[in-house]
Specification:
The protein has 388 residues and is an alpha/beta fold. It contains 11 helices and 15 strands.
């Protein structure tokens, strides 16, 4: 009986003891973002770590200090080599499960090292495939230390949360790591990385300019190969063929002054590919919902529609031409031909899966559906005709 009591007491003691190998959460070094540059034949790997207590938002409690950002930097012959050097000087074990963003510089892309770096992120099992991925021409350390509003954690910036801004102004859609890898492997589609930059001209904190993050363009790829960079201005019109677009304002100009502002939403895209005389042609119909935000020039509703239709058509054709200039099917028109008739696409595509030419868009129709005029009054069509 005594032996049984000893065994029971010993078992209960084992059950109540803690895990000897466990770590206190405050001692764990969580990496929140990683970045890769390439210089002088070596990878330069950056790691961002944050104090997660800065991210806590308690009701009624004002933040009294700016968030603490730690940035590690190490060079190596491979990304693994650089990562091991960072770990060696990290004081505690580095954990990569909290990486929410990956950045590569244009140096990596120009050196054709992006696939090699993606191999590193793929084999590092702790890095998740739903991380955001960007490119940049800036110094990565400056990107990681970009300023925030109201002393919030960098977790509440474009670097870690790009979706919120995209909902309000859908210019260039943010990309997840798994989406980028999947598109690279797609035979007939192009791929892209949104480009992060620092803007110090628009916001001020008291009397000092703030350096805040902004997406100013995208790096474009075709058949896994980097083909070049296009600015956000050159890509205006891309959003009209992207079903993810949620909302985007467009100003109508006349003699360098604003005549009207419309907010366009939820494009519905229909593309019909055709092959004729060894060339691919595409008939496009795009339907958009629209809200009139501002009207500063007297005009009829038909006139407003005609001018906006012409403007949006011009934007789409401009994106097509800019893509052709860097040999990239930005609008992914060729993909529609590939999926409808892969044999014909195979006959037409060059070595880089490219089937476009300057007249590839044969017919383009824009349908604008008014949702709200904001109580603005149009000039009646009859009176407009009498004034002529």
């Amino acid at each position: 009986m005594k032996a049984i009591l000893i065994l029971v007491a010993g078992a209960s003691l084992l059950l109540t003891t803690g895990c000897w190998g466990s770590l206190e959460i405050q001692t764990i070094h969580y990496v929140t973002a990683i970045g890769a540059d390439y210089k002088d034949g070596e990878y330069v790997l950056y790691a961002q770590m944050l104090d997660f207590s800065d991210a806590a938002k308690l009701e009624g409690q004002a933040k009294t200090k700016k968030p603490t950002v730690y940035v590690g930097k190490a060079a190596g012959k491979s990304a693994w080599d650089a990562a091991n050097k960072l770990q060696a000087a990290a004081q505690q074990q580095l954990f990569w499960e909290q990486v929410s963003t990956i950045i590569v510089t244009d140096n990596v892309l120009k050196a054709d090292k992006h696939l090699e770096f993606l191999e590193f992120t793929n084999r590092e099992k702790e890095i998740r495939y739903n991380s955001w991925i960007f490119s940049t021409k800036e110094n990565i350390e400056d990107i990681f230390k970009a300023q925030t509003f109201f002393k919030f954690s960098p977790l509440y910036t474009l670097l870690h949360e790009p979706k919120e801004q995209y909902r309000q102004s859908s210019s260039i859609s943010p990309v997840r790591l798994y989406q980028f890898i999947r598109s690279l492997k797609d035979k007939a589609r192009s791929s892209y990385l949104p480009t992060l930059t620092l803007n110090n001209a628009l916001w001020r904190e008291n009397d000092k300019n703030m350096k805040v993050l902004e997406i100013d363009g995208a790096d474009l790829f075709q058949t896994k190969r980097w083909n070049g960079w296009l600015s956000r201005t050159d890509l205006t019109g891309w959003q009209w063929v992207n079903p993810k677009t949620q909302s985007y304002p467009v100003a109508l100009l006349s003699d360098d002054d604003i005549s009207a502002v419309m907010l366009f939403q939820k494009p519905r895209i229909h593309i019909r590919p055709q092959a004729k005389r060894d060339k691919a042609y595409f008939d496009m119909t795009i339907t958009l919902d629209a809200n009139l935000v501002e009207l500063r020039e007297a005009m009829t509703e038909n006139e407003l529609m005609e001018r906006y239709t012409k403007l949006l058509e011009g934007q789409i054709l401009h994106v097509l031409r800019e893509g052709i200039r860097i040999h990239t099917d930005v609008l992914n028109l060729g993909d529609t031909l590939y999926r409808s008739n892969p044999r014909v696409w195979q006959q037409m595509a060059d070595n880089h899966a490219f089937v476009l030419h300057n007249d590839a868009i044969r017919h383009l129709k824009i349908n604008i559906h008014f949702q709200d005029t904001g109580e603005y009054k149009f000039v009646p069509q009859k009176r407009k005709d009498e004034d002529k």
